[in-house]
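User: Please predict structures.

Assistant: First:
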Amino acid sequence: LQSDVTVPFLDSTSHLQTPANMKPHGALLLLCLLHAVWGYDDTTFVAAVYEHAVNWSEPARPPSRQQALELMRGNLDVYRVQTREAKRQGADIIVFPEDGLYGFQTRDNLYPYLETIPDPEQIVWNPCDDPDRFNDTPVQRDLSCMAKDNDIYIVVNFGDKQFCDSSEDSTCPTDGKYQFNTDVVFDNRGTILARYHKQHLFMTEVQFNQPPAVEFTTFQTPFGKFGVFTCFDVLFREPAVALVEDYGVDTILFPTAWMDVLPLFVSVEFHQAWAMGMGVNFLSANTHVLDRRMTGSAIITPSGAVSYYHDMDSSEGMLLVAEIPIKPMKNVVTSTELPIREQDTAFVSDLFDDPFTFVELKSDSDYVSVCHNDLCCSLNYTKSGPSSETYALGAFDDLHTHEGQYYLQICALVKCANSSRDSCGQPIRDAQTIFSHLQLAGNFKFPHVFPEVLTTGLDLAMDEWQYKAGSVVSTSGIRESLLTAALFGRVYERDDGNFRSTNGVEGLSSGLPLIVTLFFVVNYILYA
């Protein structure tokens, strides 16, 4: 037997709907019987995330401390209003975005915004109750009182300065101080509960320093165990995957300043995929800065997004509040060998600066497959739409070296920008083709695979597809026109770049067995 993972239906309050006849003992029985099953216990909590349209400026020279505080107070006023509203709606915890208090600054301009944030593992401190314990910490005091006054946990991204001496610390920056991109957690009494320094700085984050060692930041609450990391961290094993697999967290808190990159790195698309692939709750709060393509926040369970926001037209922020389970059940996915049909029409086109091997979907209904190095991808589909629209199935199995270095294995169905094969993989936002049946699979040998579906208007089509037995499956059809469907695999063990496949792209025509009949037999057994 194989169970399925269904993207949840939403009611008018954006709360997760569970089958009325699913009793706890029944869920346990199914868990014993099935290869993969989603289930929750009957305990929930209310989560909130706020996508913030940050007020910021880029002065030619560093502001004074007073000028920096004035700018941050404007953003803190918004945080205060949204925290109060989140609590009014019953929220237990609220997450604010990366860089939300001061925007994007140079290293010198950033310094006046920073405060020294003590390590809560060494010092227990409630800034609201004891504001004079440390010098020049008014922002921490305001946030602490905000949490205490509203009886709510608050997660805020905020810069931490730590002074150092190069004569004692060989990694000390030349200006004598570390500047860390930092997430700070205040409990509902205002005490600093957790602090996390971002490990994987994006290439433009030269205003910050990388911490000397990876930090695995977790904390326990009455409503579950939480882990914290920031933005670009999500693409790497440490700390992101380790928090789930090694530290057993139930929910990830994710402040981000995420810039959309179509077709595979739209904020809500990728964050939902990561939560589904890892089997955890995921609270994503994005900065809302449209000229940087930054939008997209979500409250996600392993079954998919319960509530999300993505708007490139509005200049306003957005508060999301939803009830989610404390203990999400983990997904177990097994990998099977795929039947591969030789393809003599393969071509190469760039997707996110990686040379994907593609095959074009030439028929309205067909089974196609494509391979790159050790990865083979298959697609069984039925579609209808304008003949002028071109779709292609692509595979990539190699080291990605653009804007970072990490090893990817990806199966991706994409709409091409035009009829030219060179346009397959280029960013597009609109389509007219409907897929009434879709089954995308890959012969992944590594466990970290994240399922993606994105339709026209950058919608997630949440109730129209399933992550079933390691495949993206839609048997009843996706109502909106499809932009992309993908299985995004990460092979963390190969990030150092030392691994090289012996197959190569030329393996596409190296005599792979023609066993299409077997494919349909297996397909019938698993999915009919």
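Second:
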Amino acid sequence: MLLRRRTVGHGNVRLCLRLARLLSSESAVHRERRERIRSGPDLSQFIIKQGRTPKIHPEIPPYIDPTELRGDGLSVYLDVHGCQMNVSDAEVVLSVLEAQGYKRSSTPEESDVWLIVTCSIREGTEEKIWKKLRHIKRMKKQGKMERNVCVGVLGCMAERIRTGLFRESGLVDIVAGPDSYKDLPRLLSVNRASGQAAINVMLSQDETYSDLAPVRLSKDSVTAFVSIQRGCDNMCSYCIVPFTRGRERSRPISTILQEVQQLSDMGVKEVTLLGQNVNSYRDLSEESLSMFNPMNDYKTAKGFKTVYKEREGGLKFADLLDKVSLINPDMRVWFTSPHPKDFPEEVLHLIAERKNISKRIHLPAQCGSNRVLESMRRGYTVESYLDLVQNIRKIIPGVALTSDFIIGFCGETEDDFMDTVKLLTQVQYHKCFIFPYSLREKTGAHRRLKDDVSHEEKTRRFNYIRDLYREGLLELHKSYIGTTQKILITGDSKRSTTDFQGTADFGTKVIFPKTPTDVQMEPGDFVDVKITSASSEVLKGEFLNVTNINL
């Protein structure tokens, strides 16, 4: 019995030794693993791999010597692409830079700074910018322009691609998003002092540039754009705008009225109010609330819905349109681009009552298929859209409707496309902007839908509906032959200095001879013109008499 216990004791010793060696071996493995982790990549490297790049670089220091921001003696060329909002943005940029001593140049090759204000709505528009950037790089290498010219990309493409614009060496020196224009003097200063690339693509929830007075790009023009809001909250599944221009926010109404008054004093005879969703304007500032009594609150048009909570209180688009139209009764007022959901009857009746508010309404349909409209997250059906069209024409007789259409959206079938054709021919628009669908990263469609309509099919459908639209537009224009239209003269015809060109209230270009007449006419005058011929693009006519917008 004693012997057996000793044997068991020796066995325990051997077992303990084995366990000790095993534990020692495992500890070594753990130490090796810990060492690999300690010397391996940190969290920041994984974040960078997922695209979390800096939105501002170099960081804005706590103090900047104001003299370092000056650009005295330096010239800047503004190269504007895309929509009217980009023209308005370029005027803000010019205001910021002129305040720091920069001078505008009309010759890009001789400029110190070449700023390209970009659009990102379609792939084709971005590709044009890439080609231009590579062209500028070749010009530098060939000695056709100075090598130290600072090239900047501004606007929506800058916000969407960000540091990706720096991946190809020698293309871009600075990048600034739509809400970063006030930082341009610093970005330019950084590049000028060190040759270092600089970027600011931080979006803002309150920047509207309402404290700046835009510098007009065309000082002699009798028409002007006034930005009343920035950003968009609609989140249509095809649209990149909420991701490149941020959340919707409106300028205080007092600053808009001041800008319109200044334009009127300068002789401007047509002002266009601009916004991504212009008729959802809502000013909640205390200053504005204390100045004006807002109209009765209203909701979206009947049959329409929104993806965001409806705003309450403040001054709305009807309040703004009312005040703007009263500044100068002889100045025509238009607005773009609206959303169909934001057309309450208050706005429609105001347009009908005021002679100086254009009887032209942009009503983007995008598609004529309910199934596709739902995928687009537009918030309405074709039936509710047509009800709105009928109501607009009832309240505003003779109104001219224009629209946007996207062809070949995700999942669009031939039947869906023919529904769009039916809508286009049924409404008889005065102008349509029609484009094949272009998938954009970050959008809802990019995340949830499949771009399954082939390029060839998109092209076929686009060509078909474009030709059909032009045929219908020609017939519509022919219906004006023999009528008298009130035309705002905007300048000489591009094809002949012996002719004037202008725009009718419904937005169509009209050409008419300067002579024979002994009446003095100039850009900014309203004249009656008898229409004598028409094409799908323009109307031509004969001068009758000088008039004003209220006759």
